[in-house]
User: Fold these one by one.
Assistant:
Number 1:
Amino acid sequence: MKVIPLLKIFPSRYISLLAFAKSFLLSFGSMFHFSGSLNHSHEKSRWAFTFSVSDLRSITLKEEGWCFLVFKLKEPSASLPALHFHQGGSREFLDSMRRYKLKKDPYVTTLGGFSKVTNYLFDALRGTEEQQRRPPEEVADLLGEVIPGLEINQQEEPGFEVITRIDLGTRPQVTRREPLSAEDWTQHQDPEGRMINVSHLKQVIFKGGLCHAVRKEAWKFLLGYFPWDSTLEERKALQRTKTDEYFRMKLQWKSVSEEQERRNSRLRDYKSLIEKDVNRTDRTNRFYEGIDNPGLVLLHDILMTYCMFDFDLGYVQGMSDLLSPILYVMENEVDAFWCFVSYMDQMHQNFEEQMQGMKTQLVQLSTLLRLLDLAFWNYLESQDSGYLYFCFRWLLIRFKRELSFQDVLRLWEVMWTDLPCQNFHLLVCCAILDSEKQKIMEENYGFNEILKHINELSMKLDIEEILHKAEGICLQIKSCKVGLSSFKEENWYFCDYTPTHPEGGDITSVRPRLLSNPFLGHYSPNSFQI
């Protein structure tokens, strides 16, 4: 018996399984019938039953001479007749349902996948019948749906053993400093408003972050909205141009009539999803709490306008999580929009339908963890967790739901310095896992326990401890650069990073280099930058 999870996968809409089955019958020519009957006035609909897909908890596939499907709803009192397939075709029917889901809701491939891998399994752990252990191979199949092309089952190959011969040595201790003050920020400007000593300024931000009074201006530089070498007058002119451009795009969707909207299904879908997500994004934050909050209106309008800016991508669940802190800091609709555009330029691949960004990052993270801690990686691999899919949410929205709101602000501005390497967020993942590995291994956590444990870390993480450890890991890798040079033929390369005292001095900007291995598949030489 195989239970196929559907909780939180499908959007809230009603579909007729009879109509769906008829469509399937035309495609595959399989015979089936519904067991049980419902009292309908017309003979044609005598065997039909309809329910909301949002109420569906699971589909159980059973075999008793032939296959039949049992639909289980969230409401335990509700029961549905079984769907029988006497001449085969049950698996094709399920595949057809999945294709129907993806065709109707392309955004599901992004955060819907995240929901399947994380939310559903955690909910299942709290259930009754769902408490039985989920077969690892079933989750491998599930991940294959979430991230097409990602191979879960790894096989040892010659060449990867190079990692076992690397001694990373003792992890260096690092120090951090207080956030950059408004006075310090002003001292890094020339009389015309250009930013000076930018490399040192980025180092100070990396080491301590920013005081909140500075964020509104500094984030525009860190995100690339303002050029570092621009004068104050040039920035004012840029803002005027960008303001006009923003409101022209906003007018495009604001001026769409109801009749036009009825003929534009994509716009309707974007609008509906945005409205749902806005109403549940950071509602405990004072900036967004309450009914008719103006912050929610701005959040909605910026996301709708982004659909006009990038209509191919439009809106995907999770993007509201990336915008919320930016709008909170900017307190200005236009500035928040263009900063969000800059951030989405970095995060775009995370939300694309093929999810190439997520596939690449998961491969990179697994590679990196195997280098740093082979014993822990082997343990995770033995529990069918070697691809670190429980880090999916961390990577997708950059720890937005793992940290307190203020800690998210601190982490993001540190990462935006691109120090000590461009993919510092992967070292942040390693730092968190390093803190949790002892408990995971000593308690002999299995597949489900690892998922549950990682999920329960949300809002319990210490951002300063994580940043200390992540930087220390980077220095640890750098310290064994000489030892790694002998394995050049294995394509293991590491960047140069020169740490300094937090109170001053220069820091070398990291030049991205490749960290790869043929064992982990093929990806762009520029994709792994550490």
Note: The first helix runs from residue 17 to 28.
Number 2:
Amino acid sequence: MSGRKKRKITKAERLKQLQEEEERRQREEEEARVKYEKEEMERLEIQRIEKEKWHQLEAKDLERRNEELEELYLLEGCFPEAEKLKRDTRLLSQWKHYIQCDGSPDPSISPEINTFISLWKEETNETLEEVIAKSKLVLNLIDKLKLILLETPPYDLEDKNIIQYQGSILELQELLHLKFNIATEILLRQASTLADLDSGNMEKVIQDENVTLYVWANLKKNPRYKSVRFSETQIGFEIPRILATSDIALRLLHTHYDHVTPLCPVPTSLQEHTATVTHFVKDEVKNEEAAISKELQEEGKQRENESNSVQEEETKFEEQGDSEVQMSFVQEEPEATKFELEMKLLSETVLSAQLLLIENANEKPCFFEDNEVDLCQFTTLGGVYHLDILELPPQCKPMKGWMIVEILKEGLQKYIYPPETTEDVETENAFPPIEVTLEVQENVIFFEDPVVARWDAEGKHWQTDGISNVSYKSEERLITFSLETFGPVTLIQDSHINMPFQSWELRPLDVNKVLLTVTTVFTEIQIQIKENLCMLASIKLNNKKHSSILEGKWMTPISFICALKEAGLNIFPSGHSHFYVVINYKDPLVEMKAYRQLALLSSAFAFGWSKWNTVCNSKKVIVKLKEHLTEEPTQKPNWTNLMFSGDRAQRLKINENSEAFSEALQEETEFHSTLYHMVKDFASKKAMEKIRSSNCQFIDSVCYMLLSTRLLSYS
């Protein structure tokens, strides 16, 4: 039994066991420490090598920076060159208008437009058809003046010109509306002779490309005739009994343009800022001109002294020849230098104007009424519906072969509804809101149900109160609502409904031709750009192609942007948009430099949205890029991510499928000061040739569209 008992461990054995365990633990710790130190040394060595390599790359970049920036400056000479061409075109426009001899005035020349307005004021008894025909010319003159204000750079616009052009626009708008009122009065005087045989009332409908007019005269005053519908359509009114028994006329004048909303003022800060830059550069140019003139004089004296000493043994004929060559050389050099200075001045002013295009406003507009429409947040679309209840003027009466009519001195009068005093009326609900049904213009896109707004004549703004029971039938494009008082009405939509963008891509199509695709929550818009023109290529709504009258029409960039906005396709942020949209803020100077350089490369490289652009800080932008020399899109594009900080460009190691963001440099690549020199490292010879041979107007147009859409901040 004693043999089966477990032998006790002695104290010496226990101590030995503990000692062995301690030695093993110390050995393991030592091995771990040695391993950690080795790994740490390797890591530090790798860091040191990477840091050394980084410093070498930075030093190399710094060494060639001036050379690269000088080459970029020469390439970006296309921007002042394009501006010079635009300036020449503006100067030639007056001459082109003069030689056309079509009888229309030049709206930019004050005496001509004033004469036109005065002569038209003197014309009387014009019918609605005649006014509508004349309105085409008037609207064309207004559009020309608006375009001059938009297309002329602020440094070429004087305050007196702005006041003159805006004054002419307002005068033309007011006169056109007055002519419609006078023509309506002339029509209503003849209402009894134009009465419908069935209803006994008069109805008149005139449709034109710019105006749709509906007029109804209540001749029978039948209390049961409360539903007014025009030309067997659903457009019309539901009127109360008091109107059905009154001598009134209803007019719905739908102008497809908006002459009610006040004109946008030209920002004074923009003018002052540009003027400051211009004066600064002009002073610099004067100083350089003085220095160059002094140098030329000294060189001329030196040449004269040298020629006198050398030409003692030469013939008189040779002396004359040398002096002629010398004089022509001295004359040509100042001319060339003067041109360079002019282009430098223009380059600085263009740069300033481009920077101002993407600057954010510091303060949000303040509005004092709860129901006032913020025109920085909302846009009026589809024109203005002028709703009027008019007093029926005295009717024409036949007498002995003549038509006798009483003409009221005060002209066409509005019927006040509801009346200011209602003492004689027994029931409280005798003046209910009037139900109105309108047709939404077919060329305008509403991504959500439109909001109805009415014009407040006293406050000079749109507001949304006094309107109830709004319903919208999108398929029939009909909107019905109840209105307490009549007056101008419009439909509004959030200006930023398509912002921020989900993605974008800029792809070359042909020589000096690219396709810009912008994808939003509701739509995909494709824009073609060539030379100094833009065109809407296609629109997709909910992944389905949507037809538009703008498709296939080539326009200048500013006209094109205005046309898209008027169609409800606003993808162009304003200076106040950042107050209404969550944006990916980027430093304006970095953003502007990026757009300029992307435009330079756009003829041979495709660019696109990168998810990493939202991760990097505001001083850097990231885009994906690939060489693209064919018109067709690549099936499996091999994109490269580029990061640009305004003064440094680099290829990133990460791609769009990477899990985490890193600024690590792509292996075997270097830093460069510009995107142009970055892509030059891996671009084909053909691609670089296409870039260098790009048209200056094309590059300028691409840059303007990028500046206007602000894809790097609003995607």
Note: Confidence is low (pLDDT under 50) at residues 306-330.
Number 3:
Amino acid sequence: MAGYEADGDASIKASVASAVFKVRCQSTRPGEAVFVVGSHEALGKWSAAMALPLTTSADTFPMWTSAPVPLLAGMMVEYKFIKQREDRQGNPQWQKFDGNYRVTPVAGKVLQAVSDWEVASADISELTLPEEPDKIEKSSEAGKVAAKQEKEEILLKMAESQVETAAAEVTSTCPLAVTLTKREMSRRNFSQSLLTLDVDVVDGPKEEQNENKDEAETTITTASAEEPAQEEHKDGDVVVCQVPLDEYEAPLNEEPPTEEPQKVPDVRGVSLKHITSFSALADVADAATKTEHRKGKKVAQSHYDPYNLNVPVVIVTSEVAPYSKTGGLGMVAASYGFEFARNGHRTMVVAPKYKHYDGINFVGETRVRMKDQEENVKYWHLRKDYGEGKGTDFLFIEGQGIQRDGGLYNDDDGREYPDNLERFTMLCLAAMEAPLILDINGQGKYGDKVIFLANDWQAGLVPVYMCYKYRRHNCYSQARVIYVIHNLGYQGQYHGREACRFFGIDDKAAGDLVLGNCINLSKGALICADRVLTVSPNYSKEIQTASGGFNLQDFVSAKAASLRLAGILNGIDDCWDPLVDPDIFLNFSVEDFEKGKLKNKAALQKKLGLEENSELCLIGFVGRLTWCKLVLAKPSGQIAHQILTPLAIACCGGAAGAGRGQIKSCDLFDQRESSQLP
């Protein structure tokens, strides 16, 4: 073991010497730090809880350095390095080699012990401490800001250095994420219904179109594939069946008519064949309904006092109900628009103009630069007033390629439009220009002191442009961007684009956007956003793990370590009120909810042909048939049996065979049934 020995004639005496400990460690993750621990009291007496923390900087990472440590001259000290969380929670990770480093301090000198995390030897030399340059006092406001920026740069360097490690963790711990990455690029950025995965449903026998597909992308077949599965489980403890229109509409006290063998029954609702993302919540209460519903109800009021009402809110989203909606994002964006305005903020919602909407008016146009050329964009406006001078400005962006005959993001075959990156780049640029150039309703411009809420990767360029375009030119210097993550599984990944030219940014900005060999808009947004929010506190923790971060977990952790990550639980829309819901069998309130739920449960059991028993647990699931909803890609009968059977058995009778569970698998969508579920 390399070390430094004092002169032979020097005796051990109580004179003070110092040592600086350095180690090159590139494997630290955001939120972690390196500590030195050893035999001397100043090094914690081998206690990890008392270990001495080392520091690094954006310029010196991955080198970690201690402050000069006072030690007794001539007394050999053994030491080692450990990695652990900065708050010292959890188990520390020790260097794995046998033995310890050794150093013997010399009176009146400062020794420097430099080593590598993986190497069991240290280089010892004498260190001459330079004179301290003039520094900004850390206690001053400017010093605090500089220190915070320095820490954030270090955290991001750690995240960048661990990209390959993070990807390996995802591969080893999250098979579903691996399945997602194996999809063709045109299917990665949006949720895909499992009934449309890489296949076209046709009449007659079904064949796999690609035998090498991962199991989670197995060809989905219809009745012909379901029959064997139902035959296999017909004597089991769980009954799996689909509900056609005839069975729904038959009198509840009669058996459904027997179907002809070759007849395919009609179903009520919307076919899932060409729907890649849909929501059970078909309706969102309008402003008048919300206002009326909340009158006199304390629990329906805001439980916080709004601040900074002089700061307008600009919500940037790829969809907003009721104008455009494929799922929860559209509804949440609409709720943002209402709630901020109701609390007193001047509020604007910016979304693409996928088609012409009733009541919108042309209010202006501008040109934005992308792909090394200028593109013209037009603004269309609609005002919704909520009374007392409060209301929301809905702004719709019209530009080349935004309007399509198919879905919002995908064609009918589920493949992403090839120019989606251009479409949403245009959305972000147009949204950031709007507060600066549009005088809406004669109230003047929103101005550059605003707060942007950028939702999911489609709006991920808003924080990037804020950092690298606008603030560099002293525009939006008082503005802030909050990036809201609704689903980190979809990140806006694009190959074959040269970031600097396409987005009109420099190399540093391009580095923030690139992950591996492709552009990743979510990564850029995570790095550049002033704050990051998720749709629940638990989800903010989940996306810091390998199973929920999808290769971006370290960048999320970096935001958390700098105290810029939080989760706010999504609420329930006002229209979901059992007291006035027209779709349930019996209305009820908090005063008689037990009676009301029992009667509704019994009616639903009867309607679905289930055993009418108030003691049995009745569970309903309304959602997209996607892997992120814990549904594997199987024919629908197998979905119900393999995913729901253990739950039904557990709830209906404990161990398998102890009771009889029943499952109704409905490959259709109808708002009324979603309201009637427990």
Note: Residues 536 and 568 are 5 Å apart (CA to CA).
Number 4:
Amino acid sequence: MAEASRWHLGGTPKHKLHYREDVEIRTTLQELLLYSIFLINLCILTFGMVNPHMYYLNKVMSSLFLDTSVAGEERTNFKSIRSITDFWKFMEGPLLDGLYWDSWYNNENLYDLKNSSRIYYENILLGLPRVRQLKVRNGTCKVHSFFRSLMDECYDKYTSKNEDTADFGLKQHTEWKYSSPRTNSPWHWGFVGVYQNGGYIFTLSKSKSETLNKFINLRMNSWITRGTRVIFIDFSVYNANVNLFCIIRLVAEFPATGGILTSWQFYSVKLLRYVSFYDYFIASCEIIFCIFIIVFTIQEIKKLKEFKFAYFKSIWNWLELLLLVLCFSTVFFSLYSNMQIYRMIGRLLRNTEKYSDFYFLAYWHIYYNNIIAITIFFAWIKIFKFISFNKTMSQLSSTLSRCIKDIIGFAIMFFIIFFAYAQLGFLVFGSQVDDFSTFQNAIFTQFRIVLGDFNFAGIQQANRILGPIYFITFIFFVFFVLLNMFLAIINDTYSEVKADYSIGRRPDFQLGKMIKKSYNNALEKLKLKKPETDEDKKRENKDLAEKARREGFDEKEIQSAEQMKKWKERLEKKYYSTEIQDDYQTVTQQEFRDGTTSKYKMKLSECLTET
């Protein structure tokens, strides 16, 4: 029999299988293009939220209130405050000078201030600044019996249970009377405690001289006591030139150990989001973003109905769900923050005689920025789902997937040693070195040591014997041994993957071939590239043969590979044609014999390689 009319060994027909793969590749390509548009839109949306002037506004404000020194004492500024005396010097000096700008530098009034200060002549002070204090009660801790004859008072660290709510001092004005906290106000996380809203509050005056007299009166009547644990200085400014609000909070914590720890927050935010034409363009991007979320949600619901529990076996599906949750959270935070802004901003701006609490609005706006930043991070990570069209990225993905078990086993061993050294460093150097003052700081410090950033002099000064021993052994075991083991795991797995790819054990990059083919066809139609001829293919085959000879393959192996390639191309042309989808192609017995023999040779070669 010269010809066999059909070649079908059961299962799905080859031409239908190829047709299904072709449809899947086209669907994947369409999904990639759609997701690329979504990612571009998300990037425009996120970068449109960030104003380059935010950094400079924060910088000038922090320089004014943090770096300005007390008159006659160059070393005393807000950052260097260590005692109550230094604190009052700052309040009566740099703080007042920074808040009240009554005239131009030559004492000339260039414009109507409308009863409001303009910091640096450009930033309008919104409402009145506010000063707030939180205290703890006496007797919140116990004095040892040995020292009760010397000291009978004890003030513990700040907690909501230890907070003092009784009136004190003159008991005449709000600064001497306790004000209950509001339920919707965020708490403040400081160095030595977490502080709620409320406390002993007073607002400053619009007159600089009246505010100075207020500070002097508080200082003379001991407004700051032994029970004081924190003082907040809050105010907000608005710059109409760049449409930015700057919400400022200066914090002075009074730990139970004595002294003062200062910290600060400068939040430059764009609360009025839709002002210019570019802002309305960003609003259109937000609408498109919501449309994409609806489309992706429908797609995932369809997949979930189709695959059911098998849907959750793919890590990419979990990433899709995480991304959808983040996108919906972004929309929720955006709607909530905008509703709060438009509900409160008018009322805050009308009450110019009171403190305008923009900190609450900035708090939610910062949360919105953080959520959308995490969203775009995972949106970029999802790009790895489409890396099958690239050989290099596929090798990277295969390497990580193959060595994941080895990496998990290594990570267990690594963190056992790492946490052991972290606890050792915390216990030995925690009371002497700031980098080891807490267990968390010790962990981060050890990561910095691995990267080459360390303070060996401080460790050695804290303990002259254990310091050098800790440092040398940590560097030896973690840096020289464990990290090199980690690199060896990655390197060996990558070598195995590369070897498998070189002998043909690799995924078929059909998507990449389709993109390349479409690109070449477009260039040929535009007459920017000549069509590939048979001579070009022969020249390419000769180049591959020469490359194989240089790598040490003999002539028989090269000829066998060329024959296998021709057979594969002939079969793809006959059976895998997408133009004929409902009929089989004929094949000669000789072609079947040659193809079967080559296929068995390839399988035998793979078996010999594995053994």
Note: Residues 1-12, 575-593, 595-611 have pLDDT under 50 and may be disordered.
